[in-house]
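Researcher: I need the complex structure. Ligand is uridine-5'-diphosphate-xylopyranose. Inputs:
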Amino acid sequence: MAGHLAIRGEDWAKDGRPQTRPRGIIDGPNYPKSLEGPKYVGRRGLPSACQGVFMKDRVNVLCIGAGYVGGPTMAVIADRCPHVTVNVVDINAARIQAWQTDDLPIFEPGLLEVVKRARGRNLFFSTDIEAGIAAADIIFVSVNTPTKTFGEGAGRAADLQYWEKTARQILACSTNSKIVVEKSTLPVRTAEAMDRILNSNTRGLRFEVLSNPEFLAEGTAVKDLELPDRVLIGSHETPEGIRARKAVADIYATWVARERIIESSLWSAELSKLVANAFLAQRISSINAISALCELTEADVDEVAFAIGSDSRIGPRFLKASVGFGGSCFKKDILNLVYIAQSHGLDEVARYWEAVVRMNEWQETRFVRRMLAAMFNTVAGKKIAIFGFAFKAETGDTRESPALEVTKQLAAEHAHVVITDPKALDNARIDTAGLEGTIAFTPDPYEAARGAHAIAVLTEWNLYRDLDWARLLASMERPAFVFDGRNILDHHRLFDLGFNVFAIGKRPLRHV
Ligand code: UDX
Ligand code: UDX
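Model: Output:
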């Protein structure tokens, strides 16, 4: 690799001694693994066995895309690595401005504390993408890769226009060689196209493209980043590629145990991200399929999930039956996998994974049908309180939230829907704008329930467990119904209070 982004390897003398003193910034396995906050390791304190060393005092990391993935990831890197300068840029000026205040653009437990420790020290937010690119040694690209809505592959393939535009911008603004890291989830072999675009230059610049997919889940992003199950870094299996991935591995090794940092080929890393999400979603669709059977056979889906999850080969996680999975990733990534399989002529593989998404859609529709059937086959003119609009608890994110589909279907049935949520009301307003029917919003669950015929719990916020359900019931129309789309409530207690209770994968508890 040329330029001042010299990565330890061939640039070092053949006798094994560095031509330049290793002015490392990156610590190896001896770095303290404590989670109590960052500790600066000065150059003098560096172990001699530094891996992948840049020939400069500090490494300059840039992240393009200050969203749910880029923002928290870079904040944790900056927090843990005071010796790395981290710049985060985005085309969205309002988002960047919010990152500079204490009212961050996304809600994540613990994130503000992490940002406040590093911001202004070695973590910076800006809209100056060009200057950021010019100064960077390593560029993480975390722009969105939504499902294509037009042309070939519409509804399934990933829309890579922002990615390609960003690659071209990196090329245009670079004056030195760089490592470019795919953080966004991308179809397998996207790096090939990136490689071609970036390395098509005639200026002698060399770009090493890596894949470092993100496995953080919303609501636990900081914890997932601070204590990850694994970090995956893929590269070309060339000496330059392997050196580049070791340089990025060294950044993570500041706080992640080496044995949790997995190195692989580029293609394995790209595909692993899609497959991880597909497997997680498949477990939910599997248990949701069984929930329908439970409701007809008087088996209890939570008992079944516990029984099968106790088998160490299956394990207990991601077996919680629900109204359906949401979030920006699962559906998008599975449809992307389906499209890739189809484009390779693997129709059986495509059909197999597509069924995971179809089962999820069916579960959402089934939930509404069950509401209708229980409420005497009509909800027209009835007030229905939706408890929770976020796609899961501890986030204000509503992307692909099952609550939107349920709201749409209830509104189409002419129900009067009142939505309450502690974090997601702003997004709920945007998502439901233009829907026919009457939809209202309130942060207060008691107000939402007043005069309602039914409550549908669609997000597993803890606060809903602890509400005064007798007070809620007293303010509702009779017969009063609760539909627990997350199985978080004490169903027998609610039944004893007087509610008709319908939970996922359980026998209904009804007075009428
Ligand atoms: C997104 C994708 O959804 C996910 O597949 C991928 O793995 C990472 O990026 P997320 O961070 O949740 O995840 O998306 P989002 O919150 O929309 O953030 C993307 C950011 O990129 C936005 O703030 C957007 O303004 C920015 N962006 C987009 C750019 O800065 N430049 C562009 O050209 C396009
Ligand atoms: C997911 C992956 O977990 C993460 O590794 C990846 O990087 C991004 O996609 P996220 O979408 O933030 O993360 O949330 P996750 O916790 O996976 O939940 C997704 C959806 O599945 C939520 O709607 C959640 O409520 C639902 N879910 C999850 C269930 O219905 N049952 C379960 O047992 C688990």
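Model: Summary of the prediction. The mean pLDDT is 89.
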